[in-house]
Amino acid sequence: MIFSLHEKFAVVLILLGLVGAAWCFIDLRRQGSPSGGVRAFLILCWGLVLIQDILGLLLLAEGRRPSNFFLHIMYGALSALCLPVAWILSSRSQGRHEAIYLGLGSLLFAGLTFRALAVA
User: Fold this and answer.
1) Which pTM value belongs to this model?
2) Each residue's pLDDT tens digit, 58-78
3) Could you tell me which of 92, 109, 113, 84 has the C-alpha nearest to residue 23?
């Protein structure tokens, strides 16, 4: 049951990452900087990634391992780090650069989550 949840949750995270990236780039086009809503959305996404990581650890505790263990763990860990790194980089800049960092971080998050799912 946890495996099925972990797998389906990954698909949801990919879609959320794409929505976050689109939202950042729409804000960039409209107002030049990310809105408070997109910032809150990305914090929520990061929290959901942490839940996904916990589900993965529960699977490991049950003795279930993905077929390509090292790559899956690497992509999963990197996807969990994408949004905080993008957040730190964006906090050091203003306006357009802030939206670009958050948007690219969201795209990278979605891509790495997809790769983690693909190598599982």
Assistant:
1) 0.91
2) 999 999 988 899 999 999 999
3) 109
